[in-house]
Amino acid sequence: xxASAKPGPRERLLLTAVELTYAQGLGVGVDALLKGAGVAxxxxxxxxxxxxxxxxxxxxxxxxxxxEAYRATLDGAGTDPRARLLAVVxxxxxxxxxxxxxxxxxxxxxxxxxxxxxxxxxxxxxxRHAVHGLLADEFTSLGHARPRFAADQxxxxxxxxxxxxxxxxxxxxxxxxRDLAAHIIDSGLAREGAAPPVAGxxxx
Length: 204
What we know:
Blueprint: H1 9-24, H2 30-37, H3 41-48, H4 51-76, H5 81-97, H6 105-112, H7 119-142, H8 147-167, H9 173-187
Helix pairs in contact: 1-2, 1-4, 3-4, 4-5, 4-7, 5-7, 5-8, 5-9, 7-8, 8-9
């Protein structure tokens, strides 16, 4: 890389934070972030306003990339909604089984950021809302009787898959998750006489 193409302080700090906050957790120290990026402390405050702003930007960048990966996985599986939904679970299963997997960045962030007003929570909420919308659209196309509730179920399954992949990789979470995903998909297919959606946010 030429000197002219070298990332500036903001980008170096962001790239370092993406890597270190995932590998070491959000508790990684500011000094480690600055050293890894090779930037002065003032760069952190000039570009992000402090560590909280940097963490929020890390989550913002990661969620944008991961949402695009969800869309690419769905589109790469063809046009059948069932195959598209299972492709998402299969991809997450491969991710959870990969070396160096440390769990879901967003779940870890929500648990670590104890201040409910931390800007990172807004990012993770928006991300989950967007993913839920993608999955609900597929369930709707499939003719599922309760598409939004089914999307809730699948997201709960995804959280479990990613948590188990980080903590119990010997339990074959990917295979178990796929079987459960197929059950969620197939058990609620709209049919004559199907139970009406239950009132509440999940069935909205």
